[in-house]
Design a protein that fits this description.
236 residues; alpha+beta; 9-stranded antiparallel beta sheet; two-stranded antiparallel ribbon; 11 strands; 24% strand; globular
């Protein structure tokens, strides 16, 4: 890797982790709540949910309804970064090389492969040992694409590697450092949870649905991507 390549990879890595680092103060507040992510005194099973009558969820009609009256705007939105902010992982959405590719960073080897039409990654898990994780969702489309896997408690976590779309190669998001599994910024750690840190900006009308009693999530959304109503409001 020459100097120019190294600078590009470093920029991509900083781009990918800056949001998590910027939310460190918020994460500290959440950590003060104990094992859960709910604010002090929260007793609801969905700590951040509004009363059903006020949530406005029923008023979200979906981008297809918007398209009927706004075809030009819908055409401009299709294929945009907003439209592709998040999606289910399949043949049409996964850009990375999963043909038994590998990346070695520090002592950790990460392998990318397919099985029965699905996408998997073998890498260091929360226990420090290598484990297999199925890719459930893709996150973003340019300049890099990240991949979300399911962990216990309804949590989704982005893997510690990303796909450089322009150079068509894997790179580590932990440039210059190795985070042990005990570090809360390890990819399996609490501060790297999609539910708590990333989800609201990538989907429409997202509900975290955090249950403090079980320290688990049942997160859902009206639309998986950033659709019309994410910015304009329900049925606007």
């Amino acid at each position: 890797m020459d100097a120019a390549d190294w600078r590009r990879v470093s920029r991509l890595a900083r781009f990918a982790v800056s949001a998590a680092r910027g939310l460190a103060a918020l994460a500290g507040v959440l950590a003060a709540c104990g094992p859960g992510d709910a604010p002090p005194g929260a007793t609801s099973s969905a700590a951040d949910a509004e009363p059903a009558a006020l949530s406005g969820r029923a008023a979200f009609v979906g981008s297809e309804r918007c398209a009927a009256c706004h075809p030009a705007e819908t055409a401009a939105w299709r294929g945009s970064h907003h439209d592709l902010a998040m999606d289910v992982a399949d043949e049409s959405t996964v850009l990375g090389d999963f043909e038994d590719a590998a990346l070695v960073h520090f002592p950790t080897q990460t392998r990318f492969f397919r099985r029965d039409g699905r996408f998997f990654v073998e890498t260091e898990g929360a226990d420090g040992a290598a484990g297999e994780f199925e890719v459930k969702y893709v996150f973003g489309v340019d300049p890099l694409q990240q991949y979300l896997v399911e962990l216990p408690g309804g949590r989704l976590h982005p893997l510690p590697v990303g796909w450089d779309v322009a150079r068509k190669r894997w790179f580590s998001l932990q440039q210059g450092e190795r985070l042990p599994p005990s570090d809360p910024f390890h990819w399996t750690g609490r501060y790297q949870s999609w539910n708590a840190m990333c989800a609201e900006c990538h989907s429409t009308d997202l509900r975290k649905n955090y249950d403090a009693a079980t320290d688990s999530y049942a997160t859902d959304w009206a639309e998986i991507d950033v659709s019309c109503e994410a910015c304009h409001g329900p049925a606007a």
